[in-house]
Design goal:
With 287 residues, this protein is α+β, with helices and mostly antiparallel strands. The protein has a single domain, classed as Creatine Amidinohydrolase, CATH 3.90.230. Helix content is 30%, strand content 22%. Strands 1, 2, 4 and 5 form a four-stranded antiparallel beta sheet that branches. Strand 7 and strand 8 form a beta hairpin. Helix 2 packs across helix 3 and helix 4 packs antiparallel against helix 5. It is globular, with a radius of gyration of 20 Å.
């Protein structure tokens, strides 16, 4: 970033003078950069206008998942879920981000039992005792929101119910670490310690990501890590936290469709996801 004077237009695109916008924050970050010995990219921070657009898209993403929760049940096919999500999204003047992304053929991801993520909707029928992750991403007025939830179908085993609960706790533990000048390593550490402390494993092949102006942005958000390491969190960063927790091995394999990721040992997997905004004092859950 070129050095700006106090009265120059701020680099962030807000249109404000630098002294009224990011000047004080940049000075603070520069002091941190001197201590850690590397540059921190400013372009991972969104403008207030962009945050508001992302917030609206995230609200729609939340509403889609609420709608799915009201309708999902034993006997439904995952293709029916895809139809619900697609029609609801389009009816609200938005577009389902997964559709056509890297040739993904559907409007939502549906991942059942041993499927970790990126399951493709099909004529598969949900059975009593299944656990399923529904991963929704909306594009509204050019801004992206991304979230997923687990749904327990009918009466599931205690093993499955416990896994779903612990995976949600892992998401919550990660979110609690979000505040300015903490690091992604802090949240990865919190997630890993909680999961492994209860005898579960954390998938390391996949993680969260920056989101908002694009579907997948920097930084990569690992769900394992060490305190104080990794990207430093800054106000107006937006990213997903989406820990994938397995009963057995954390190892993954991708099926012949080039998308569906499964556990290598056939054990159950569970995932919850939110899009998070780093605020001046902590975090806001956008989805």
């Amino acid at each position: 970033m070129n050095k700006l004077s106090r009265n120059d237009t701020c680099w962030c695109g807000s249109g404000k003078k630098y002294k009224k916008c990011h000047m004080d924050q940049d000075a603070f970050i520069s002091n941190i950069e001197e201590k850690v010995g590397y540059s921190i990219p400013r372009d991972i921070m969104k403008t207030d206008e962009q945050v508001e657009g992302i917030r609206k898209s995230c609200k729609l993403t939340h509403d889609v998942l609420e709608m799915v929760g009201e309708k999902i049940k034993v006997g439904i096919t995952t293709d029916e879920i895809n139809t619900w999500v697609h029609e609801y999204t389009v009816a609200h003047n938005a577009y389902p981000a997964p559709l056509g992304y890297g040739d993904f053929p559907k409007s939502v991801c549906t991942s059942i039992n041993d499927v970790i993520c990126h399951g493709i909707p099909s004529d598969t029928v949900l059975k009593d005792g299944d656990i399923v992750n529904v991963d929704v991403s909306c594009i509204l007025e050019g801004y992206y929101g991304d979230a997923s939830r687990m749904y327990i179908i009918g009466e599931a085993s205690k093993e499955a119910v416990d896994l779903v609960r612990v995976s949600k706790e892992c998401l919550e533990k990660g979110i609690e670490q979000v505040k300015p000048f903490n690091t992604l390593g802090d949240l990865g550490y919190a997630i890993q310690q909680h999961a492994e402390g209860l005898g579960y494993s954390v998938v390391y092949d996949y993680g969260g990501h920056g989101v908002g102006l694009e579907f997948h942005e920097e930084p990569f958000v690992a769900h394992i890590g060490n305190k104080g390491e990794g990207t430093i969190l800054l106000p107006n960063m937006t990213f997903t936290i989406e820990p994938m927790i397995n009963i057995g091995s954390p190892d993954t394999a991708v099926l012949d469709d080039d998308w569906t990721a499964v556990t290598t040992d056939g054990s159950l997997s569970s995932q919850w996801e939110h899009t998070i905004l780093v605020t001046q004092t902590g975090y806001e859950i956008l989805t």
